[in-house]
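Workshop exercise sheet. Pairs work together: one partner reads the sequence aloud, the other fills in the structure field after running the prediction. Swap roles for the next sheet.
Pair: D.N. / O.F.
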Amino acid sequence: MIDLSTLTPQLQATHWGWTIALFLWFIGLSGMGFFINYWVRQKNFVYVLTFCGIAGLALVTSHLGRLSNLPFVIFYALRDFSFNFQSWMMIGIVLLSLLSVGSVFYSMICAGIIFKGSKWQKLAQSDGFNAVFSVLGVCSTIYSGFLLTQAVGVSLWNSSLIPVLWIMSGLTSSIGMLELMSAMGLVDHKSVDWCSRTSVWVDTAKLFAIFSFVYVALGSASIGARAGAEALISGNQALMFWIGGITFGTALPLLINLITRSQKVITGGAIFAVFGALFLRASIFFQVITILLVFKGPPKARKHLCT
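Structure field:
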């Protein structure tokens, strides 16, 4: 085992808390949901994805302490055309804002609010319109994973596999949401009859992505990455990782979709898949915080995600 007390840089990790964990979950669900909505195009699903996108944007901006200032910042930036395109945070806020505003527009068309008439309905059902949201959703999900890879001093997160893992887990949670909504009669069952079959392949790919992420970290030349991986699989967050993220969040839904077509059982597996994405993100996110609290105590000053 590695002596974690030697990890001076990694011990500077920020105590970001559940705010960012939920942000990562909401954006993954919304982003990859809009990706698969290219084939689904169900208005109730769009409403859910819109809520998730807005919730994710609100969480990250409130964490930065700029929720009330954001409209003024956008106004002055547009007025002066003073955008810092070298800032990953600025790029991310633009992406998330486009996703949120665009999804509200999409929802208003679906609900027939302001944008009424057959021409708007045809637009919402067109391939080009949904392709834009599909690309924007994937980019937003990748960005939410890429943001962690840029965290200074947290070696475990400095991995290109995190965006891939975020995509896979976002897909499983959004497919699970579709199955859940189908069981509740909120979406047309025939339009989502492919979910169980597709979920098998996505869950398998997700398990492989998780294995690759941990395996690469354990074999890394970085002491911090190896220690982070060991803390993930056997530390204080290991229960959330193994039970929430892998067993209930991935393996159980995979097994259910392989062996049964019982609607009640599949619905239960769908719920596990939706929340399994949250537990996976939270376990990867919080294991660094656990190291910090054990060896350094509470941080003297909180640094924000953009630093």
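Discussion prompt: Residues 263-296 form the longest helix (34 residues). What would you look at next?
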